[in-house]
Structure formats: structure tokens, C-alpha cells
Specification:
The structure holds two protein chains of two kinds. Chain A is of the alpha/beta class. Among the domains of chain A are: 233 residues, NagB/RpiA/CoA transferase-like (Rossmann fold); 66 residues, no CATH class. In chain A, 52% of the residues lie in helices and 11% in strands. In chain A, strands 1-10-7-4-2-3 form a six-stranded parallel sheet, sandwiched between helices. Chain A has a four-stranded mixed sheet with strand order 8-5-6-9. In chain A, strands 11-12 form a two-stranded antiparallel sheet. In chain A, a hairpin with a 4-residue loop joins strand 5 and strand 6. The longest helix of chain A has 24 residues. Chain A is globular. The relative contact order of chain A is 0.13. By secondary structure, chain B is an alpha/beta fold. Chain B folds into two domains: 35 residues, no CATH class; 172 residues, 3-Layer(aba) Sandwich (Rossmann fold). Chain B contains seven helices and twelve strands. Chain B has a six-stranded parallel sheet, with helices on both faces. Chain B is elongated, with a radius of gyration of 21 Å. The chains are: A alpha/beta, B alpha/beta. Chains A and B meet through helix 2, helix 3, helix 4, strand 1 and helix 8 of A and helix 1, helix 2, helix 6, helix 7 and strand 9 of B. Strand 9 of chain A pairs antiparallel with strand 9 of chain B. The complex binds iron/sulfur cluster.
């Protein structure tokens, strides 16, 4: 997929001016956020489950090679195939080869962030295979020809009128005068159209929320049931998953499932959680004849040896973005690549490079809400700070910022100069900003003042106040 | 793609700063796999069986499943017939070829037109059994096999599940123990919690996205 991560600032500006997007983002606070809080409160064990989830993933990552090999052996024992893909190109080619083996014309797809990561749809189209997204949100954005803006609610930014427009444009066989005002009418239309696609497809591709080493199963979690129709009806089921999706046992998966829906949507459990193990058995009346798992690395094996390793615990629940003030202000598209929000700010530099993504770790107020809700206790702010530092070390921050920091460092090492300079700045800014008490714009600080006002400084510098207080204390003692 | 495989595993080991796991560790990890230890089980399902059944009903109804409790298997055909009548659904049902369902005398409700087997997408109503049900979240567990086609769980607009109260367990882990005792992992294990739903249009929850619009549970009291 094309990235626009470099243009984060422009993207953000556009997003802030988009009233439709802003109303959609406002709803998140009353929906996902409140529902998650209620779900967590209903389960007294929730905090302990988070610790346990972290520990399960840490244990798995520590023995990742063992669990991947075990997973592979058990998939094979059940009659399935495992394909290892080092890069997105490898993964795409493996999938294309499988599709070609049955001369596939259409492929239905369950929601998969890994498929987005490897740019699967474009690639299949280039090779004359029509991919059809079946998750309602993914279907909507596929028709609109845009990437997802949220990892669990991909069309969260789209208004129902825009969905209606997309359907009128795409479903040309239907009466152009039909009413699509009600969301229910939109849903019914999508249901009817996609129903036939499931039945016609040659191959069904899904992601996986978990892979289970013990049984060689892939697990998908959906509310719509689209993933199940995708993987049950065609001749071939392909699950694409990244390495870190593996967990040891069914019990470990159950422990993580107790966290997933509650953190994501605030549901006690999603409607459908399905464990798929191998192809249809000789005595089975239905199910796919072939079962394939494509295991994608794309930098994760290397990541395991770095300071940001903890990000590999992520179960893609979306809670961090639901609770993020920056995501809540600019939405997912501003981040410019597959993974938005705090998890995106950490994953994107890892996967596409610090240079390409250097704005993202800065798209944070370090308020800590993401870490407070992350079910896997990933210290997202710490990891973002790591990339900030890295970008600075690699001299990827702009010259003005570097020069500013250099100047500050020069002065900070010279207390006399620092006091004099800070005092001067305070007096000048204080005089200039006295009237409103705030600055709406300020030379050299437009990165701040473009989106928020800077309060005008009042009174003395911190050092002057400190000296005065200590002086008083000194006299009193 | 064995070269891809070996290279990936080598990178994983390099990051972990070690070679393949040593024999001692391997034995420990194998023991963890075969012992599949349980973690924290929420206390809410730790109650006597009657109360677990009540919890199952409460949780299932909370996610928009409907539950009809009947006193014996003899009550099932009427419960199905009444459900069809209530929703104007005609008389056709597509039933799973399940021994226990077949042991019920369906002629008690002569108007029902029963056919058996998987669904090809034309059926309005399916009737299936379940393997077990988990009280914790009101979740049904169905698995694929000759007596339980997976298509019946997803294609028809109305999914009617006939469950015996003795099949209700407390937590997911209890269901796994039973499933392991029953033999090899089936091709598909479906945890079903309420009917199909979506919130993808302006975050408004609507039922019946791609799977069943309704999930109806007939709960047979068998002690
Ligand atoms: S980082 Fe944590 S909160 Fe964010 S998606 Fe991953 S698991 Fe969920």
C-alpha cells in the first residue's frame, strides 16, 4: 500500500477540517471508550488477566522458534500446509501461486491487517484475480478505494450518506431510485450482494487473531460471521498471519480472548470465535478442501532482538487508538499507513523505517492513556520515545529543531547565560501576549500554535521563582 | 519455501541470542503443551450447575439470543414449530444429521417439513445440536463433523440450536477438556455468542450482518 506517513502534518490538518470525520470520532468516546470501561468493570479479574496476558505473550516470544515449529508440525498433521514468507513480496507470491493452482477468478477476504500490510488486494488485481472484502467496513472502503482508518472499525470515518453513494455507484444492477437512507437498508443490500460472492469464490483468505501451536489451529474473531463464510465455502482457505500470532495452547488463547473483545468493543465476547484446523475431513459434509497458513515475518524476527520487542505482544484490539487524543482528533488516515494510533506510531517506524515514519512517534501528547488501557500492557509511550530519540540520533529531525535544541543545550550548560536568556524571553513574550493571555501564533513555534494556543508566560521564570523560594527558606532556617 | 523457513527461524534465534532450544527447555515446553495449564478463570462461572445454566441464559439473552426452556425432548418439535409461526417462517427446516436430534419424534408436529444435511444457502431456518455451552459469556460451542455441518451455523437467516442443560459448563477451559476427551481437534470449532452483528455503519449496532439474523436456543431440561 502507498504510504503518506511523511505527510502526517498535512494529513492531520486536512482531518481537523473534515466535519464528517470529526463527528465520527466524537462518537468513539461514547461508544468504544465507555463500553470498554463497563466491560472491564464487570470482570473483577480484568487487571489480573492483563498481567497474565502479558506473561503468556512474553513466554511465547521467548520461545518463538519452538512454538512456530510446533505449530507447523501440527498444521501438517491435520493435513494443512504452512508457508513461510520473509517479506511481503514472498507472501504475495505464495498466495498468488495457491490461487493460480485452482485457476481462481474471485477471492473473498475476511478482515486482515496483514493482507493490508502486504498490499494483497492491489497485487491480486494486477494479476487478474478479483479480491472481495466481506467485512462490511472493509467492503465499504474497498468500494471507496481507500485504506482502513481503524484496525477494528475500518470505515469508522465514513458517514452513512457516503456509504449510500458508494453503493449506488457500485451496485448498478439494482434500481437506481431505491432508498438507502436507513443503515438497515445499506446492511441488507450489502448482505445480499456479498452472499452470492461467498458462494462463487474459489479461494477464501482470512487473517488470524491467534495461531495455536498445540493444535495447529488458526483463530478468527468476528461479529459479522463474514470470516466464517469466507473460510468455509470456497475450495481453499488461506490464513495469513504474522509470526507473533502464535500462542502455545487453547487455554492460552482463551485467556487472551477474555481480554480481546472487552478491550476492543467492550463486548463480553465477540459473536463468532472460530478455531480452524486443517482442511475438510473425509467424513465432513462441508468445509474447504485445502487449508494453508502463510506466516509473515516482514522484520518481526529482527524486531524481537530490539528494545521495541514488547510491541510484538499486541493483539490488535484497537483500544490504544480508541483512547488516544491524537487519533481522536485526526483519525486513522492521517497516519498514512496500515496501522494508526499509538500502536501504529510504534509499528510503522519498525516496519517501514524511521525515516519514512519519523513524524508518528511525535504524534503523541505522552498522556499515557494508551498504556493505561492496553490489555497486553505494552508501554507504548516509552516505545514512541525510543523512536523519537532514534530519529534525533539519526539526524532525521528538521534542522530548525536540531539547531534549537543545540542552542538550548549550549545555554543550559552555562547557567548565567541561560538565566539571562530565559528571563529575556519571558519578558518579551509576557509583554506581547499580555492582552489575550495566549498566543494563537508565534514565530518558530507554529508546530505548537497551529493547533492550540500557547498561554503567555506570567511573572518570573521557574529559576527566578525557585531562587526566591529557596532564598526565603534559607532565611527561615 | 524451506529456505524462507530456515532463514526466519535463524533470525528469531539470533534475536533471542541462542541456538535451537536445548533439550531441557524443550522438555519443559512440551510438558507445558501437554499439560495445557489453566490460567485465571473468572469467578462468575464458579457456581452450582443450576446457577451456571441460569447464567448461560442470562448472558445469551444479553447479546440478543432468544432462549426457550422446555422440560423434555418431547417438547422440542412444538418449540420449533411455535418459533417458526411466531416469525412467519413457513414450515421448512434444514436439520443437522445428529443422532440425538434424530431420536426426537418430529411427527408430533406434522406440519414441519424436515430435510437434513449441509446448507447451500437456500435455507431460511437451520436446526442444530451443540457440543456444549459456556455459561461465562453465554457462548455455544459447535464443531464440524458428519453430524454437524458448519454451513448450518452461518448461512440460514435463523439458527435454532437445541441444547441440553447438562451440556452447559462454566468456562471455556471446561469445554476444551470435554473436547479433548472426545478425540482429535475437529476441523472447525465455532464459539457462537448471539446472532451476527455489525457496527460498521456509523457505529450503530445492527443484527444480521452476514451470518444469522436470529439465534434461538431451545434449552431442554435434562437434569
Ligand atoms: S497496542 Fe495494546 S491497545 Fe493497542 S491494539 Fe495492541 S494490544 Fe490493543
Amino acid at each position: 500500500m502507498k504510504t503518506t506517513t511523511r505527510q502526517f502534518k498535512d494529513n492531520a490538518r486536512t482531518a481537523l477540517a473534515d466535519t464528517g470525520l470529526q463527528s465520527a470520532l466524537d462518537k468513539m468516546e461514547t461508544g468504544f471508550v465507555v463500553n470498554r470501561a463497563n466491560a472491564a468493570a464487570r470482570l473483577p479479574e480484568f487487571e489480573a488477566l492483563r498481567d497474565q496476558g502479558r506473561d503468556i505473550k512474553n513466554h511465547t516470544l521467548e520461545h518463538l522458534d519452538f512454538y512456530l515449529e510446533t505449530f507447523e508440525a501440527n498444521v501438517q498433521k491435520a493435513g494443512g500446509h504452512v508457508h513461510w514468507a520473509a517479506t511481503p513480496e514472498d507472501a504475495r507470491q505464495i498466495i498468488l501461486d495457491i490461487c493460480r493452482s485452482v485457476d481462481a477468478k474471485t477471492v473473498t477476504k475476511g478482515k486482515s491487517m496483514i493482507a493490508e500490510e502486504i498490499g494483497l488486494n492491489e497485487f491480486l488485481e494486477e494479476n487478474d484475480i478479483a479480491p472481495i472484502e466481506t467485512d462490511l467496513g472493509e467492503y465499504i472502503i474497498q468500494l471507496r478505494n481507500e485504506p482502513p482508518s481503524h484496525i477494528i472499525a475500518p470505515a469508522i470515518h465514513v458517514l452513512k450518506e457516503q456509504v449510500a453513494d458508494a453503493f449506488h455507484e457500485a451496485h448498478t444492477d439494482l434500481d437506481p431510485g431505491r432508498s438507502l437512507e436507513e443503515p438497515q437498508a445499506l446492511l441488507d443490500e450489502a448482505r445480499a450482494i456479498l452472499r452470492q460472492k461467498y458462494l462463487d469464490a474459489d479461494v477464501g483468505i482470512t487473517g488470524a487473531n491467534f495461531l495455536i501451536a498445540e493444535t495447529g489451529s488458526s483463530v478468527i474473531v468476528t461479529n459479522e460471521g463474514n470470516g466464517d463464510l469466507t473460510q468455509t465455502l470456497p475450495k481453499i482457505h488461506i490464513a495469513v498471519a504474522s509470526l507473533e500470532k502464535v500462542v502455545p495452547t487453547l487455554e492460552d488463547a482463551s485467556a487472551l480472548l477474555r481480554l480481546l473483545a472487552r478491550s476492543a468493543t467492550g463486548q463480553e465476547f465477540s459473536s463468532y470465535t472460530t478455531f480452524s484446523t486443517g482442511p475438510r475431513r473425509p467424513e465432513d459434509p462441508d468445509g474447504p478442501e485445502q487449508y494453508h497458513v502463510v506466516l509473515l515475518d516482514n522484520g518481526r524476527a529482527d524486531l524481537l532482538g530490539t528494545e521495541v520487542r514488547e510491541v510484538l505482544r499486541c493483539i490488535r484490539c484497537g483500544a490504544c487508538m480508541n483512547h488516544c487524543p491524537v487519533y481522536g482528533a485526526v483519525g486513522g488516515h492521517a497516519y498514512g499507513w496500515v496501522y494508526p494510533g499509538p500502536i501504529g506510531s510504534v509499528l510503522t517506524p519498525t516496519l517501514i523505517g524511521v525515516e519514512e515514519a519519523r513524524h508518528l512517534p511525535n504524534a503523541s501528547t505522552f498522556c499515557g492513556r494508551c498504556e493505561a488501557v492496553c490489555p497486553m500492557r505494552i508501554p507504548l509511550p516509552k516505545l514512541m520515545r525510543h523512536y523519537r530519540e532514534k530519529a534525533h540520533e539519526e539526524k532525521l529531525t528538521p534542522a530548525a529543531e536540531r539547531a534549537g535544541l543545540g542552542l538550548w543545550a549550549f545555554a543550559a550548560r552555562r547557567p548565567g547565560l541561560y538565566r539571562w536568556a530565559a528571563g529575556l524571553v519571558i519578558r518579551v513574550l509576557g509583554a506581547l501576549g499580555r492582552r489575550r493571555g495566549r498566543f494563537a501564533s508565534l514565530p518558530f513555534a507554529s508546530g505548537w500554535t497551529r493547533y492550540r494556543d500557547l498561554p503567555a508566560p506570567q511573572g518570573q521564570t521557574f529559576q527566578q521563582q525557585w531562587a526566591a523560594r529557596n532564598g526565603r527558606r534559607g532565611r527561615g532556617a | 519455501m524451506s529456505s524462507g523457513r530456515d532463514a526466519i527461524l535463524a533470525r528469531v534465534r539470533k534475536s533471542l541470542a541462542r541456538g535451537p532450544v536445548d533439550d531441557g527447555t524443550r522438555a519443559e515446553l512440551q510438558a507445558r503443551l501437554s499439560g495445557h495449564p489453566r490460567g485465571i478463570i473468572p469467578a462468575r462461572s464458579n457456581r452450582d450447575h443450576g446457577a451456571q445454566v441460569d447464567l448461560f441464559v442470562e448472558m445469551a439473552e444479553a447479546v440478543a439470543a432468544t432462549v426457550d426452556r422446555v422440560a423434555s425432548p418431547d417438547g422440542v418439535p412444538d418449540a420449533v414449530g411455535d418459533y417458526l409461526a411466531q416469525h412467519n417462517l413457513g414450515a421448512d427446516i434444514r436439520m443437522a444429521p445428529d443422532d440425538w436430534l434424530e431420536s426426537i419424534d418430529w411427527t408430533q408436529r406434522p406440519t414441519l417439513a424436515v430435510t437434513k444435511g449441509p446448507s447451500a444457502g437456500k435455507d431460511e431456518v437451520s436446526v442444530t445440536a451443540a457440543f456444549s455451552a459456556v455459561a461465562e459469556t453465554g457462548t455455544l460451542l459447535l464443531h464440524s463433523g458428519p453430524s454437524s455441518p458448519t454451513t448450518l451455523n452461518f448461512l440460514p437467516d435463523n439458527h435454532v440450536v437445541v441444547l441440553r442443560s447438562s451440556q452447559v459448563v462454566g468456562a471455556y477451559e471446561d469445554a476444551w477438556d470435554q473436547l479433548r476427551a472426545a478425540g482429535a481437534m475437529p476441523r472447525a470449532v465455532n464459539f457462537i455468542t448471539g446472532p451476527s452483528r455489525t457496527g460498521d455503519i456509523e457505529q450503530t449496532i445492527m443484527l444480521g450482518a452476514h451470518g444469522p439474523r436470529r439465534l434461538h436456543i431451545i434449552l431442554v431440561d435434562d437434569g
